[in-house]
Amino acid sequence: MDHSRRLRLTTLSRVLRTRVTRTAYYGLAIAIIAIAVATLANAYLQAGAASLGAIWRAQLENPTLWLLDSMPFVFLLWGQYVGLVVSTEASAMVLDETEDLRGDNAVLAAEARRSQRIDPLTGLVNRSHFVDSLEADIEAAQLSRTTVGVIVVDLDGFSEINQHYGQANGDRVLVAMARRLSHAVPAAATLARLDADRFGVTVTEPASADELERIAERIRDAIAPPCPLDGLSLQLVASAGGACYPDNAIDAYGLLDAATQAMQDVKSRGGDFSMVCSKREVRGVVMHSLSAELRRAIDEDELVLYLQPLVDVSAAKTYGAEVLVRWQHPRRGLIMPGDFIPRAERSGLMDDLTFWVLRRGIGYAARLRQGGRDLRISINVSARSLLRRDFPDNLQKLMDERGLPGTALTLELTEDTLMADQSRTLEIVERLAATGVQISIDDFGTGYSQLAYLKRLPVSEIKIDRSFVQDMLESDTDLSIVSATISLAHALKLRAVGEGVESSAQLERLRALGCDLIQGFYVGHPMPVGQFERWLRDRDTHTPVS
């Protein structure tokens, strides 16, 4: 028992004993008063007066008063004894009750911990515990330079069982499959229910592709026999995929994703039950392991800005540049945005990444203006960041810090971003436009825009998607789309920007169609800041584009 609890019980015992003692003192006082009254009465009856002499004689001549005189002391001793007994028993009762409560709490806590890691239907560990266990196995494998394998098993067509026979019978089938799988996997393996009809198996060393193949064979043999259900025999099949650390991923989530991707590849080919454990690096899985590193990359400036020039076709001069972000990873080299931006979106880092780009882009635009170059900087913004209520205020704060007017900045938004939440998007875009910031619709033609909604937006330009520009010389359909988009932009008093220009022929066709700005490899590749500045110095801003 800890010191604080012992102190509380001691205090309780003392309080109880004090209360009982106080009651005994009350009894003692009453007894003394009764004796005094009895003695006075006896003296008065014997001597006709209540003098001290009469009281003394009454005491000497009446033995009954001697017994009565002793009673207060008896009451006092008895009260002290009773107080001690009561307080001791009360303390013992409280102690017993406390121990019972502690035992009950320990049982409840253990049950709570178990419920957090156990799937209540199958009794297998759940996904959360499986991932934690897998992470621990990977850490141990890193130290011992060994391998860890994962198999993901998915029951094909299980949703039809729920539809035709009901969820209760579906649960019975899942319990039966879990029991079969538990007998099929090695005793040292960790078996978990990952999702509704999906199971996971972790295999520690030796965990080679061949080892996973053998386990997959045992799983297939275990699932193959018909599953009895109310007189019916259900024939179940499954798809499975496997992955190995460190061949396919270097963390728990990446390894689980690799095995899941392999399983889905098998399922898409209708492969019944096959094992896929590729020696190659599974695309996207390694990037998942980079999600944890992205936070550090943002904080430690591992990200770098690239700029791609925007050229005014009619004036034949540099109009501005689009800001693009790259990740200069210390081990993996330069990582393109298509590989890490989806990870940023899924890991909740998109706002941080967006504001990193905005802060650096605005800072660079201000530096250009201080150097006498009045170029407009375009920056892509995600829907998640744009739809934050405080986005316009935070953006204005960034521009105020660097003394950059809103007219020097263009935010590029995709059609999907603009259409996601029209009322809220319209409100925020109007607030941005009020500060002078211009809005560009990026990749126009690849999404779905309502013209009635589009004309209400304070948009400044439309960027024609590169897929139409690149094929317009060979495809009349693409040429018609490009021409119609430019005409639409001009009808709405907007600039038209042609993306993906890679040849002089494409440039001349866009010029003939009246396109305002162009962007693409023919003009300039995305380049680091230093190279972009050299490109500006080497290029006469009034030299015609050719």
TrEMBL record:
<dbReference type="InterPro" id="IPR035919">
    <property type="entry name" value="EAL_sf"/>
</dbReference>
<dbReference type="InterPro" id="IPR000160">
    <property type="entry name" value="GGDEF_dom"/>
</dbReference>
<dbReference type="Pfam" id="PF00990">
    <property type="entry name" value="GGDEF"/>
</dbReference>
<feature type="domain" description="EAL">
    <location>
        <begin position="287"/>
        <end position="540"/>
    </location>
</feature>
<feature type="transmembrane region" description="Helical">
    <location>
        <begin position="24"/>
        <end position="45"/>
    </location>
</feature>
<keyword id="KW-0472">Membrane</keyword>
<dbReference type="Pfam" id="PF00563">
    <property type="entry name" value="EAL"/>
</dbReference>
<dbReference type="GO" id="GO:0071111">
    <property type="term" value="F:cyclic-guanylate-specific phosphodiesterase activity"/>
</dbReference>
<keyword id="KW-1133">Transmembrane helix</keyword>
<feature type="domain" description="GGDEF">
    <location>
        <begin position="146"/>
        <end position="279"/>
    </location>
</feature>
<protein>
    <submittedName>
        <fullName>Diguanylate cyclase/phosphodiesterase</fullName>
    </submittedName>
</protein>
<dbReference type="InterPro" id="IPR050706">
    <property type="entry name" value="Cyclic-di-GMP_PDE-like"/>
</dbReference>
<dbReference type="InterPro" id="IPR043128">
    <property type="entry name" value="Rev_trsase/Diguanyl_cyclase"/>
</dbReference>
<keyword id="KW-0812">Transmembrane</keyword>
<dbReference type="InterPro" id="IPR001633">
    <property type="entry name" value="EAL_dom"/>
</dbReference>
<dbReference type="InterPro" id="IPR029787">
    <property type="entry name" value="Nucleotide_cyclase"/>
</dbReference>
